[in-house]
Sequence to fold (261 residues):
Amino acid sequence: MSFAFIKNFSTNSKLLASVFLFVLAGCSSTPKVEQNANAPLDPLESINRPFWDFTWNYADKYVLKPTSQAYVEYVNEDVRTGLFNMAMNLNEPSSIINHLLQGKFSAAAKNTGRFVLNSTIGLFGIFDPASDFGWTREQEEFGEVLGVYGVGDGPYLVVPAMGPTSVREEVGDYVDRYYWPLAIIDFWPNLLRVGVIGLEKRAALADQEQLINDSVDSYEFVKNAYFQNINYKVYDGNPPIEVDESEADLEAFMDEFEEID
Fold:
């Protein structure tokens, strides 16, 4: 059995599972969601919570965190930067297409310039000369494209040992994997790419993990932070201000009361 078959089977199974969960959420409703239209969809909380407990208190504590700490401590910083730049450079073509799908032609041109310059002068992305021209990295995922088109997040999911996600993001990640050049990368190089990005992201979380540990409910804390971050990305850093209807009604009542008084 080839690695390509394993990879395709894994991604196809993940997509089918995501679609199934999306349909499941559409067929079910809870009083909590009905009372607050802005509340994240979490019909699988009874399953997600044990998965989160395993992910944070076991997989992360005993594997992911120690591995990232060792990576940061023992791997030369310049080597780490080069590996991370090269891994992220492979995402540039997908960002180009995702920008174009949203009509962000300027951002697409910038990503194109970054990919061409860094892949040539930057030696396959190891170096980042494009930043010297002010072309900063602007990663765009297909999940964000779906969000801009009005597709909802779908149910919240916790993937064991991987962390928080949602149906929309899983579908988006599935599509992103089939953009060039990610679609032609073999199993082991792609595993290295994902591993480098994952280690750097876990290392970056070190300064915030105490917030998770100090929270009253780490599950709710991470879930809310996840959806806030996704919303921030979909609206390019300018998400709409959500107003609680009960607070708005109270404010309107007080305004009328003051006018009468």
Residues 3-236 form one domain. DSSP finds twelve helices and two strands in the chain.
